[in-house]
Amino acid sequence: MSEGQARRDVALTQPPATGLQGLTGDQRRFFFWHAIIGAAIVNAVLSALIAWLGVRNEASVPRWAAPLVDKPSTITDTVGTFFILPLLTCVIFTAVARRELRHGRVTPLGWAWSPKSVLRRLPKGSLRRGLALGALCTAALGPPAVALIIVLGVGNLSVGEFVTFKAIFGVVLGMLVTPIVGLWALSEAEPAGP
């Protein structure tokens, strides 16, 4: 019996746990290195790069500007990130998780979401799920974020301040979204049979 098969057999015999409790060693490593460390690096770099490309010719970034008509703004970019980051994370990270499963570097969870879970009601398929997760994040987190930007008086950021804000924001939002996407991907996979 191979080491990968032995790990799968152990994972199948363990009762399902809630949250991240009860994960096997390979599942914990997967979440730590891919969903936390890897996702933080990728989200920081991509968020900063996209922000810089969008504002590199601007003197400053205002709090508000008309989307797609005017120049970028803190509010429109933040709300847009609430949609785009979960969408891209779902598509890309699900593919990464599936590759790791296929190569036996991580085992399936062997459990499903609670029937009462809102997350269980999201569609199957990484693109449709990503669109739904992006819409959910935008609806749930966008209004409080906009209110916070207004209350804190954030506006007229320098290009450097804006790029830094977007890098940090990308990391924080990614740390919220990526583990959920990872749990989905590992819970959808069929455990290997005996």
Shape: elongated
Point out poorly predicted stretches. 10-16
Q: How many domain units?
A: 1
Structural class: mainly alpha
| Rounded mean pLDDT score | 86
**Helix content, binned percent:** 55-70%
The major β-sheet equals: none
* Order of helical and strand elements: HHHHH
Strand content: under 5%
**Counting H and I runs of at least 4 residues, what is the number of helices?**
5
The tally of beta strands, per DSSP, is 0
Distance between the ends: 10 Å
Rg, alpha carbons:
19 Å
Detailed description of the structure:
The protein has five helices and no strands. The termini are close together. The protein has helices spanning 3-13, 25-55, 74-102, 126-152, 159-188. The protein is elongated. The chain has one domain. By secondary structure, it is an all-alpha fold. α2 runs antiparallel to α5, α3 (74-102) runs antiparallel to α4 (126-152) and α3 (74-102) runs parallel beside α5.
How would you concisely characterize the structure shown here?
The chain has 194 residues and is an all-alpha fold.
